[in-house]
Amino acid sequence: MGNLLGNEKFEVEVDGVKIIVTEHTVQDQQVYRLIFNDKRPPLVITRVSTWQGAMWTSVPQGRQPEAETFGQIVALYLDRR
Length: 81
Fold this sequence. Notes:
By secondary structure, the protein is α+β, with helices and mostly antiparallel strands. It is built from 1 helix and 5 strands, in the order E-E-E-E-E-H. 21% of the residues lie in helices and 47% in strands. The longest helix has 17 residues, at 64-80. It is globular and about 35 Å long.
């Protein structure tokens, strides 16, 4: 998902909320930092594998519903590029 020249940066819009997404690598793990234009705090998410399958989670944990929702949106964007 990353590239050799630096972090990916893109913008998506969900229900009228613009979200700037930046991709980072932390200890060989891809993470995505989401900055919202509606004043909610930034969200950092990553995709993890569990015994139940792959899922999106927030870093640090605690914003799981948002991580799952916005993780799917990030994945759709990445699949389309």
